[in-house]
Amino acid sequence: MLAGEFRQRFSLQTAAAGGAIAATDKHQAAVLVPIINYGDTLQVLFTQRALHLRHHPGQISFPGGRIESGESSCAAALREAHEEIGLAPDAVELLGRLPLQSTSTGFTIEPWVGLLKPQRSWILQADEVAGIFEVPLTHFLQQENRHLFSLRLRGKVQQLHAMPYQDKFIWGATAAILHRLCLQLA
């Protein structure tokens, strides 16, 4: 799938429609789902969270974090991507947002999808990000690469998404967000 087809299939509320939710409590977060346009292929960019973090240490995620007081979710996603990986906000073509995603730790995440050109380099915030990597979008579009499993968390059995790729295990809210994106693109 090329960028033009991606844009066409991605028929969600556009970024121009406004900034969605502003923070009302400490458990609202926003992430950027960065899709890198290499011309002949699209790659999804992921971060691996630092091991010392309180929430989700070492897990694979999208750049993002809490929405600050008075800040829109869109602005929070772009700010966090800039802070975590050095992605300039004006380098992102925001296409829109996906539905809210709840986490087992009580957060509500608003995912924003953005296209960007390949970057010369990334500036990782070592306090938050242990590393970054890319995966071809086509890998996730194949249903056989998207899985659902049950796990007992906080005394309840929960259904969680998982999308392994090579030596990476993408699961939980990140995989659920990616699954929704794939459904949107189908």
Report on this model:
This protein has 186 residues and is an alpha+beta fold. The chain has a single domain (3-143), classed as Nucleoside Triphosphate Pyrophosphohydrolase. It has four helices and eleven strands; from the N terminus they run αββββαββββαβββα. It has helices at 3-9, 73-85, 137-141, 172-185; strands at residues 28-37, 42-49, 60-61, 64-66, 92-97, 101-102, 108-116, 129-136, 147-153, 156-165, 168-171. The strands form two sheets. Strands 1, 2, 3, 4, 5, 6, 7 and 8 form an eight-stranded mixed β-sheet that branches. The protein has a three-stranded antiparallel β-sheet with strand order 9-10-11. The longest helix has 14 residues, at 172-185.
Summarize the model shown:
The chain is of the alpha+beta class and 186 residues long. The chain is built from four helices and eleven strands; from the N terminus they run αββββαββββαβββα. It has a single domain (3-143), classed as Nucleoside Triphosphate Pyrophosphohydrolase, CATH 3.90.79.
